[in-house]
UniProtKB/TrEMBL annotation:
Protein name: ABC transporter permease
Principal localisation: membrane
Source organism of the structure: Corynebacterium flavescens
Bilayer topology annotation: Multi-pass membrane protein
One Pfam family of this chain: BPD_transp_2
MF term (GO), any: transmembrane transporter activity
Keywords carried by this UniProt record: Cell membrane, Membrane, Transmembrane, Transmembrane helix
Ranges that cross the membrane: 20-38, 44-64, 71-89
Amino acid sequence: MTQTRTKNQVLNWAMNNGALVGLIALCIALFIATPYFLTVANLLNIGIQAATVAILAFGMTFVIVTAGIDLSVGSVAALGAMVSAYMFAEAGLPGWLTLLIGHCAAAKADEEAERNVPVEVVTVTAENVEDFQ
């Protein structure tokens, strides 16, 4: 009886955590397929590449929790990357100065919070402004 109960608990856990089970299965398959998957260099590379998406997802979590919608996150990130690259390469400005790029997102948040502009209007406007290059 306990074996059946334990087996059912494991199956229920696997069904409730399907994404985690899939990730573990993918890691095992990649580890078997290539000897370089679980190296420190590769794991650092994966972490570096996933950092930007993780930061954007973390911010979007707060937007969703507050019952907002913000479709311009990708556009704001692309604008920030483009301006940072220009400031480093062409303008020769120091790296600390590129932190001011965060003002784009802050100004957008100010429009939504302080001026009571609907979130959808600010989102569409921000996407249009940032896509106009």
